TrEMBL record:
<dbReference type="GO" id="GO:0043856">
    <property type="term" value="F:anti-sigma factor antagonist activity"/>
</dbReference>
<comment type="similarity">
    <text>Belongs to the anti-sigma-factor antagonist family.</text>
</comment>
<dbReference type="InterPro" id="IPR058548">
    <property type="entry name" value="MlaB-like_STAS"/>
</dbReference>
<dbReference type="InterPro" id="IPR002645">
    <property type="entry name" value="STAS_dom"/>
</dbReference>
<dbReference type="Pfam" id="PF13466">
    <property type="entry name" value="STAS_2"/>
</dbReference>
<protein>
    <recommendedName>
        <fullName>Anti-sigma factor antagonist</fullName>
    </recommendedName>
</protein>
<dbReference type="InterPro" id="IPR036513">
    <property type="entry name" value="STAS_dom_sf"/>
</dbReference>
<dbReference type="InterPro" id="IPR003658">
    <property type="entry name" value="Anti-sigma_ant"/>
</dbReference>
<feature type="domain" description="STAS">
    <location>
        <begin position="41"/>
        <end position="142"/>
    </location>
</feature>
<feature type="region of interest" description="Disordered">
    <location>
        <begin position="1"/>
        <end position="30"/>
    </location>
</feature>
Amino acid sequence: MGARSGGTPDAAAASRRPVIATTSTDPHDLPFSVELRHPDDGDVVAAVAGELDAATNPALQQALLRALREAREVLTVDLEGVTFFGSAGVTALVWLSQHPEAHGKHVRVIATSRVVTGPLELTGLLARLDVQGMPPAGPSTT
């Protein structure tokens, strides 16, 4: 009797477990988008919108690497449209800034929302990255 058939309780439980896909062949399945813009100066702006979570990290890194490869000198990662900035967003920015293809190029981040600047501040990345567009500080408690 050693092997279990597909109709056992263990098999049924396994079939109910959620599957987390870390990559997708259809960009419409992702909870974020990256639009590349090419200003006249040869630099690239990667406008990111949506939710950046752990499941989307590989796709986000690939989109940002594509943008980095297209940038001549400066890649601006515009995070104005980001509605959730989890560890995937933080990881992607660190990975991008340390990527060998970033050597000799400048990576700039536009962060206008506390959704993005909060995690960057907590991880110390505000001091390590060129972050622009910071939202005003909250009301003073003094």
